[in-house]
Design brief:
The chain has 294 residues and is of the alpha+beta class. It has helices spanning 3-17, 52-58, 63-78, 88-93, 95-105, 124-134, 210-222, 239-243; strands spanning 21-25, 33-39, 42-50, 82-87, 110-113, 118-121, 144-151, 170-178, 182-186, 189-201, 205-208, 226-232, 247-252, 256-260, 265-267, 279-282, 286-292. Strands 6, 7, 8, 9, 10, 12, 13 and 17 form an 8-stranded mixed beta sheet that branches. A 4-stranded mixed beta sheet has the order 1-2-3-4. It has a 3-stranded antiparallel beta sheet with strand order 15-14-16, with no helix packed on it. β2 (33-39) and β3 (42-50) form a beta hairpin. It is globular and about 55 Å long.
């Protein structure tokens, strides 16, 4: 079985096992598989599969092909339809997280009311373990870490089929991490700007209002002047940030990576190992958002 058929075959099998209404679309303008996912007779997600076989055979993609897809993606997102670009290496390396995120987009997720959770600081090992298991990009160094915990007395909000260790007293259901502040002098006082580095829900769950609750916990304690963050344009246009008062600032260009197709590991250029089997790939870039607090 070649790379393309293994990757797309697994995705197709998973979609069918989840009883999604989906169809494969082929166009003359896009050489990668496009999947439309429908719910209640409404298109909810366009999924673009980037398999490495097609990527290599195409060489450098035509600028017009990239721009055509970006235009279609922007139009879909403006109408409330999600659009995701999924790479083969991400699927094989982070399959459970990918499936969880796609399920959440289509409304298949354990929903936990944020109001019954408790926000408090986390130690570094706890945050790292959670993000490595629940965030597509894993954990990175951070100065400040917060988590949302669901106390045992509220486990009743979980469905009866939810797999839960009965011996625990609380469940960590969401994590947000922040940077050191950049401090400026402004209007005779100190102005502190922080970066929101990571946010993730526990796999297969969505904490309703959880992101906002973590932001408020951080803001109440650290009194930032603003909070800056980035949306991964392969997965989202950042609409959730806009709903919470973040302003769209600018788009960042795609980032180049070197991919080891055997290990499904990506390296930046300055960390690139000596390996003649590496494949040059790049993401769709990101969008910068800033929320001004005061």
């Amino acid at each position: 079985m070649n790379s393309k058929s293994k990757f797309t075959g697994e995705v197709f099998d998973w979609l069918s096992s989840m009883n999604f209404d989906w169809m494969l679309k082929r166009t003359d303008k896009d050489h990668f598989d496009l999947i439309e996912i429908w719910k209640n007779d409404r298109l909810v997600l366009l999924l673009r599969l980037i398999d490495l076989e097609t990527w290599l055979n195409r060489g450098n993609l035509l600028v017009s092909e990239i721009d055509d897809f970006k235009d279609k993606q922007t139009l879909l997102r403006s109408t409330g339809i999600a659009s995701v670009t999924l790479w083969e290496d991400i699927w094989f390396n982070k399959k459970e997280i990918v499936q969880s995120r796609l399920n959440a987009i289509t409304g298949i997720s354990e929903r936990i009311p944020g109001r019954v959770t408790q926000a408090r600081k986390l130690d570094k090992p706890t945050a790292k373990d959670f993000l490595d298991k629940n965030h597509l990009q894993g954990s990175v160094n951070s100065k400040i870490r917060y988590g949302l915990f669901l106390p045992k007395r509220y486990f009743r909000v979980l469905s009866t089929g939810y797999q839960l260790d009965s011996g625990i007293e609380e469940l960590l259901v969401a994590v947000a991490t922040f940077s050191h502040p950049r401090t400026f002098e402004r209007n005779g006082g100190l102005y502190r700007s922080y970066e929101l580095i990571r946010f993730a829900n526990l796999r297969n769950t969505t904490v309703v209002g959880g992101f906002d609750k973590l932001l408020r916990a951080f803001t109440d304690e650290y009194k930032p002047g603003d909070i800056m963050t980035y949306a991964d344009l392969e997965w989202s246009d950042g609409a959730s940030y806009s709903r919470l008062g973040f302003d769209e600032i600018s788009d960042k260009d795609p980032v180049q990576f070197w991919l080891d197709p055997t290990l499904n590991v990506r390296y930046t250029d300055n960390r690139r190992p000596e390996n003649d089997k590496l494949i040059e790939v790049y993401n769709a870039g990101s969008r910068k958002f800033v929320k001004t607090i005061h």
